[in-house]
Amino acid sequence: MDRIAQLTTRPPGREIAYDPAAAPPSLQVRAAQVLEGNWTGRSTVPSRGLYPHQWSWDSAFIAIGLRHLSPLRAQTELETLLAAQWGDGRIPHIVFNPSVPLDAYFPSPDFWRSSAAGRAAGAPRTVQTSGIVQPPVHALAVWLVHLADPGLSRARGFLRRAYPRLAAWHRYLVARRDLGGGGLVSVVHPWEQGMDNSPCWDRPLSRVTPAPARSFRRADLDHGAPEDRPTDLDYGRYVRLAADYRDGGYADGQGEFAVEDPAFNALLIASEHALARIAGELGASGRERAARAERLTAALVERLWDPAAGMFLCRDVRAGEPIPERGVSGLIPLLLPGLPRDLAATLVRTVCGPHFGLGGTTRLVPSYDLLGEAFDAHRYWRGPAWFNTNWLLERGLRLHGERGRADALRKGILHTAGASGFAEYVDPYTAQACGTTGFGWTAALALDLLHDRPSGDRNGLTAIKGGDRG
C-alpha cells in the first residue's frame, strides 16, 4: 500500500501514525485526499470542476508533491504528459480527457483541432491537445521525482525514457522560440506563461483585436465568480490569439504577441541544470547543459534586469522595449543558483519592500505590484497570491541564504493552504480563498513543504546546485 492509500483510507477506530515533527497531521491527510480525488488513473486534474483535463505545469508541480506519497504515481503523472509531446518537441499546455464533455471546458479540443491544424508540427494522432505550451518546469520535476525513489526510477527506466523527450522539449524552445534574437525564449500567448491575466500583458494585448463575444462561451464562469476571473475583453483577445496561432498551423514567430518573460526563462534555466544532473545519472556528460544554463542566465540578466525597478521585467518583443509593470514573474529568477549575488540581494529587498510586502503587509507574495494601478486583490493573476510562485520563491530565498524569511514563507504557505481549503489562489492581505478550492498544485506543494523540512538538506534546488540526495 502506497502512502496515498495509507492517508486516504483508514480502518474504523484506528488513527494514522504521524511524525511529531511534521506540521499538523490533518493538513497532510487533507492534501492527500485532494490529490486522490483529482486523480484520473493516469494523471491529476487541477480541479474536478473548473479544470477537468491535464495541464502541463500543473502536472509538474503535482508530481513534485506526489513523489512523497507515491513515487510510482508521480512518475506516471509525468510520463502521461510526456506521451502527448508533439513531433517538433513542444509539450502542449493541455492534454484533453476524451471522456469529458466538450462543453465542460473552453477552449475545448474542437477549438484547438490539434491533430489537423498541428499536423505539420507533429501533433499526436492518438490524443487531442492544445497547441500552445506552458513554463518548462518538467525536467526539474522529473529529477526530483527520481530522487524520491532512485531504485524504482532506475528499475523502470524512468530517466532513460524521459531524458530524450525533455531534451527535445528544450531544443524546441531554444531553437524555435528565440523570437527576440537575444538568446531568450518568447511566449506567444499569455496562457503559455501561466500567469494568464497579469497586467504585464496589457500593453502587448492591446494590439490584439478581440474575438467577438458571441463566437465562444466561457465555461470558467460556471465555476468561478466573474470578479475573480479575466474580463470578457481580455478573454476575447486570448481567443483571437489562439485562433490565429491555430489557423497558422501552430507555426512560431508570426503573431502579434511575443514576450520574453523572466519566470518562463528562469524555469528553463532551472530545468537545464536538472537535465545536466539527469545526464550524469545516465552516464553522460552534463557539461553542455550546464553551459547552456549559464548562457541563458547571462542573457536573462542582460535583457530583462532593470536596476531601477530592483527586479526583472518582461520584454515586449514586437515593440522592442521592456514592459514597466512589476509582476511576480520578475522575482522568480531568485531560484537560480547562478544568479549574481548583488542581484539576488536586490530581489530579496524587492520581495520584502512596499511593492510585494512579504513579511510586512502580506503573508504570501502577491502576483502583482501592490502599488500598481492595475492591482486587484481578487482578480486572476492581477494581485492574488498563488501557491506555486510562493513555493518557488521559498526555494529561492533558502538557496540564497535567507533562511529566516524562507522559514516564515514556508509557514505562511502551509497555514494558508490549509485554512483556504487548498484554494487556487488567495487575497494577499486577508488570505480569503479565490477561484476554486481543492486545487491540485496547492495540495501537492503543501505536501512537499511538509516533507521538505528546513532543518534538513532537502531543498529541491540544492539537487541542481550540487547537493545530490540520490
TrEMBL record:
Cite the entry's keywords alphabetically.
Glycosidase, Hydrolase
Give start and end of each Mannosylglycerate hydrolase MGH1-like glycoside hydrolase domain: 51-442
The record's GO molecular-function terms, alphabetically, read: hydrolase activity, acting on glycosyl bonds
Top-rank lineage group of the source organism: Bacteria
Would I find Phosphoprotein among this entry's keywords?
no
Q: Which InterPro entries match?
A: 6-hairpin_glycosidase_sf, 6hp_glycosidase-like_sf, Glycoside_hydrolase_63, MGH1-like_GH
Which Pfam families does the entry link to?
Answer: MGH1-like_GH
Please state which protein family the record places this protein in: Belongs to the glycosyl hydrolase 63 family.
**Could you tell me what this protein is called?**
Trehalase family glycosidase
Per the UniProt record, the source organism is: Streptomyces levis
Q: What is the lineage of its organism?
A: Bacteria, Bacillati, Actinomycetota, Actinomycetes, Kitasatosporales
